[in-house]
Amino acid sequence: MRNLGFLVASTVFGLLLYSSSVTAPSAEAQTTNSTEQYGLSVDVLAQAERNYDVIVVGGSAGGAAAALQAKRMGASVALFAETNAIGGQLLTVPSIDEGWMFRNFPSGIYGELVNRVNQVYAAKGMSVGGCYWDPGSRCYEPHILNQQLTAMLREVNVDIYPRATFKDVVLDNNTVRGVEFADLTSSSRVFGSRVLVDATEYGDVIPRTGAAHLVGNGTGDLPGTCIQSITYAVPIKYYDVVPAALRLPGAPPNYASYQAEFAATVAASAGNNMASYPLSLLNHNVYRAMPDFTRGLATGAGPPKSNINFANDYLDFYTYVKGKMPPQYFHMALGGSFLTDGAARTAGISAAKLKTLAFLYYIQDPQGLNDQHWAIADDEFGDITTTDDLSNDVPRPFKPIESLMPPFPYVRESRRIQAVTMLTASGIRRTLNSDGLGRGPVWPTGIAMGDYTTDFHNCDWDGTFEPWSGDKASDLTMPQGPFQVPFESFIPVTVDGFLAAEKNLGSSRVANSALRLQPGVMSTGQAVGTIAALAVRHGIQPRAVSPLETQMELANSGARISMYAHDDVRYPSAHWTDVQIAGARGIMVGSTLSHFSAADPITRREAAAVLARTLGYTPAGAALPAIGHPTFVDVPVGDWGLPFVEAIAAHGITSGCSDKPKKFCPDDQMSREQFAAFLAHGAGLALGPAGGSGMFSDVDNGFQPYAEAAVHAGLMDPCSAGHFCGGSPATRAADVAHGVVRTLSLIGVR
Known about the structure:
It contains 22 helices and 20 strands.
């Protein structure tokens, strides 16, 4: 008979590799809710056309992901899109900005979208790589992305309201209860909501809720002096001969003021050296290259399509050639009022559009690039952009070209809520692991992921970062790699019935700059949709939703929340959800950084580490205590498992494997019946009679009540009917990771 004391010693699961990251401190933004009265009275809901569980305001990439996830989870969902298109920045910059995690392991709704789009092109035998001078990149046409993303929403019956202009929210004290918008059918439509999501590109819903929020390095009441540039990115296309209708009729307004900047960035005389400026037109076009679904590749002319998103940032001068920038231009940037003042925004968008028209003219201008083959693409936005999207400042002769431009610019910075936890540079700082890849610190409540570098376009000099954040210019050089976004960064400090998505969640400017890219906002959007649907399901406010349950729902839907990619546990593996959650919470990682060793046994030392983290004795990222006098002779000072073994011993979970001398047997394998005993002790399960009830015939004497209790509590599964396989090794995925997640849920961890 195996000694029960051997078991009472060890307790829960194991890991060979566990995260050594330090949990990042959060910073509290120094701002409070405005005292000004906002919102419509709740009385207007008596005339509401309809009530939805979840309303998403904003047809952005993040908004689409939020709406799709909430609907799949059973909520009734409406999506208010500002234009006739869905996708936001996916459409203005359809060459995708990915770090190594999203590129190599796309997951969740983002992964579904890129797989669908890839299949569209694969059916025509076409490659989607080549932008960024990289054959492994993902480069799409805007209309294909819009088509597929809209189809995904239609397939689950999300109600889409196009051309919907947000006007106001309905407030019941501090709780959002609905929304007012205008569209082509009415100047005022009111719908009720249980959860309202701001997924607009500018964070336009936030101020109407009265929620405290940030603008640049200032607040909604006192915006920062500058924000990052916008870009009116425009698709262009190779023509054998540019049609007359697509040739600009002359130089647009302000063309002369941009010529020097354009020439310093892209020049007709430039070679094809990608490492120095100016670039050739070919290299400019390869940077944001796109396939052409209709024509295929343009023989001998480089890519068939591209995107003007290089020399046309606004407001910025010499973005990519700062060394050549005249000193008087250095601190010229887009003002924070662009986000808060309607007239300033209209003027900024018009100016950005004129700068892009100027670059289009520069391509064709005999004194510019003098190219006779490239012009605006005539098959991307012509059926999306309407006269309502045109700018008054664009002269009439340029209207035919303007009507082919996207209905919105590429926006890099928006209003951001003051959240329960503000994600800052320290919260996303990637450090190199032994596999040579960077990863951020552990956030145990992490529910979304970014993986890009900190990407700033202007407004990035000393004094432009928030004083409360602790961020500084040196943070802009951190490497790329996955980082987590905690649940609490989605939750406004005080306002209920409301969540922020897209670029609008609680973060500093630096953290936001790494999270704002297309895959990141789809990840955060899917997380928001999950929180909203769970709030509706349980009849609670979003802030009361369990982060652990949110993680479970996300992982169950195929979303990646762990910063590790295990080659032996891939979705839809039966172990996927457990391994994702254990990794996301910093409890278990793998035998190597890329291999979980799912079927391998676990040792008692590893089990001590996992159990101590699971039960919160040694929280992931917290400093480990120094132990001067070890309890067990075989776990001495210097043994990596010492702090964990001592922690579970101190809490009465283990007494070791022998008394004379006092040993822990750290390298011994743990059996399933032993593991059941550790789980039962760790979770505080009530036990049945000492000999068990006869539920299992293959459990050693003394372990029967533990095996039965663990199975009854759902912490472990039988190996077959009437059998527990008590003497078999406890395996890392099916037993340990599974037990970790069920234990967390059982003991009420959020």
